User: What shape does this take?
Amino acid sequence: MAYIIATANMKGGVGKTTLTVNLAAALAKHHGKRVLVVDLDSQISATLSLVSPHKFDKLRKEKRTLKYLVNQVIQPFGESKTYIKDAIEPYIGNVKGLDLLSGDIDIYDEFMVSEILHQKALRFVKDDFQQVWNQLEFGLIREILQPAMTDYDFIILDCAPGYSLLTRSALVCSDFYLLPAKPEPLSIIGIQLLERRINRLRETYKFDNPLQIELIGIAFTLSGNLLSGRYYKQVMRRVHDDFGKAKIFTTRIPEDVNVSKAVDRFQPVVFAHPKSSGAQAFVKLSQEFLHKLQTIMDMRQQKSKLNLVNLD
Ligand SMILES: Nc1ncnc2c1ncn2[C@@H]1O[C@H](COP(=O)(O)OP(=O)(O)OP(=O)(O)O)[C@@H](O)[C@H]1O
Ligand SMILES: [Mg+2]
Assistant: This one.
């Protein structure tokens, strides 16, 4: 079964998409993992970092984008069916194991979703809108991914900034979340806001469906002028104090013009300029990512063994 990883930060422009596509590319190319990138953002940045606009156009025409899968969950009685396995575009950058579920520029109509949920609440649950809302939030992304779960080692969800229905639905079905940040105050506030939201989600589902989600780590993308001296150190110390050393990637992603240039070629920098400092940092980060995951899984195993011993 795949691990589901959400890349999220409430703040925009902190490197979520760049981290998603490059981590996915490095895991597939350098570690032989089977990875699916899912673009949950209507800016379609992850999609256009992996395939050309021409290819995206084709995927849309063939109805092979997230939009059709989302609409199917919201309105399950439509005539035509889209299957996730048919929608997935395989062999991204000709690399075996790297696949994409394309995003779309208009994924769902918020007005229509509220209307459908209100109708459903009226008919089935004594006008309890919260209940139907939670059902949708809990099941939406989970249901979409379910048929593909055994085909991958990792499914990485590129979340939009902010806290939309898709982001919440991604978080509630994820095993881990990955937090890219810049060492600057607003980006740090973005981390804190996300933490608060995730805790609230945990509260909401704690009785019926306790959430699995755990932070795998915070990855810092460094902006050149922020790196200098005391200020940067202060910010980093604050994050260390809040989250602990184990939750921070020691690999920092440097500001590297090749990262943006690669987007022009609709490729992750790991493929487009493998020798660049940016690409090498992402490859290093992918090793650290696997190591962190292994450590967490080992700790969980230890814990469950201890629980068994206590039961005995
Ligand atoms: N290490 C880097 N070096 C240089 N440019 C970078 C680096 N990381 C990201 N960028 C550029 O910074 C911009 C923002 O990055 P990205 O799109 O990954 O952020 P995001 O958090 O996904 O944004 P949004 O919140 O809009 O989804 C992009 O133009 C990207 O090419
Ligand atoms: Mg993005």
